[in-house]
Design goal:
four-stranded antiparallel β-sheet, three-stranded antiparallel β-sheet, PH-domain like, alpha+beta
Length: about 160
């Protein structure tokens, strides 16, 4: 039991390692020189609000991501995937010299694209643990998240 009698979560390490292996396999399918990247599971979210006569409806959409990062050339590769890690999109590659800036905004890691006022940005979130099978892949990644926390400030400078 943990503090205040709360039971600590029992993690299925076999399932976690299987999901990490799936992430690596997907990443290696679409990224050149994939072995040089460290991987971390992340997600992005979008919020849509609809106003009706008497009510307001807010819809949250979550997207699972595989984020690869490499300190050698200060690059980040982002792939969209499914919570089941069954497939992925083409890679989005961000290199330190090819972006406008990077910073943390409202708890999310944000990369601003180069270009004019409307160039846009990419925002995502990284957590140590994901155990909601309906929204995210089953994942515990304390070490990977710690490595990301070391890499991100260097990427932002």
């Amino acid at each position: 039991m943990g503090l205040f009698g709360k039971k600590k979560k029992a993690w299925d390490e076999g399932r976690i390692q299987e999901n990490k292996a799936k992430m690596r396999a997907l990443f290696e399918q679409v990224v050149e020189d994939a072995a040089g990247y460290q991987l971390v599971y992340a997600y992005s979210s979008s919020i849509k609000t609809s106003n009706y006569i008497l009510a307001r409806k807010t819809t949250y959409t979550y997207t699972s991501l595989i984020v690869g990062f490499r300190e050698a050339d200060m690059s980040i590769v982002i792939l969209q995937t499914t919570p089941e890690l069954e497939g992925c999109s083409d890679p989005e590659i961000f290199r330190k010299g090819e972006i406008k800036k990077a910073k943390v905004v409202q708890g999310g890691f944000t990369i601003y694209h180069k270009g004019g006022l409307m160039a846009g940005y990419t925002q995502f979130y990284i957590s140590d643990e994901y155990d909601d099978d309906n929204l995210f892949a089953y994942m515990r990644q304390s070490e990977e998240a710690a490595q990301w926390d070391i890499f991100w400030p260097k990427f932002c400078k």
